[in-house]
Amino acid sequence: MAGPIRTLRQAARHGMILSVTCRKCEHLGQFMASDVIHFVSPGRAIEALPFRCGECGAKDCAIKASEYDRDRKPKIVVWRPSRLR
Predict the structure, then answer these.
(1) What is the per-residue pLDDT for 49?
(2) Please, are residues 18 and 64 in contact by the beta-carbon 8 Å criterion?
(3) pLDDT band for position 76 (50/70/90)?
(4) HSE of 2 in the Cβ direction (CA atoms, 13 Å)?
(5) Confidence of residue 1 (pLDDT cuts 50, 70, 90)
(6) 3-state helix, strand, coil in the chain (%, to 5)
(7) Residue 3's pLDDT band (boundaries 50, 70, 90)?
């Protein structure tokens, strides 16, 4: 991969996982970038995605894109978004 991943389109192209952490209650959710791209403009910056915490309802979330190695699947739960507000 050449250069940093800045947009949702780039993250989806590389098959990345978005780790979304609530800054208020520290609840963690993980989503495939390729799923999120169906709900948000692909050119949007990763830090500017409109996530809301499912536990406390806060909109202040930290978002980090990380690689997903299909050969070594991590033991995580990947959520599928139904809509983004």
Answers:
(1) 94
(2) yes
(3) confident
(4) 0
(5) low
(6) 15, 25, 60
(7) confident
The contacts of residue 8 (CB under 8 Å, 6+ apart) are 33, 36, 37, 40, 41, 42, 43, 44, 45, 46, 49
Instruction: With beta carbons less than 8 A apart as the criterion, state whether 40 and 84 touch.
Output: yes
Residue 68, token pair as written in the block: 């997903």
**Per the structure block, which two tokens stand in for 48?**
């500017």
> What is d(CA 70, CA 16) in angstroms, rounded to the nearest whole number?
10
Q: How many CA atoms lie within 13 A of 10 on its CB side?
A: 13
Distance CA 30, CA 34 (A): 12
Question: Which class for 65: exposed (0-12), middle (13-18), buried (19 or more C-beta within 10 A)?
Answer: buried
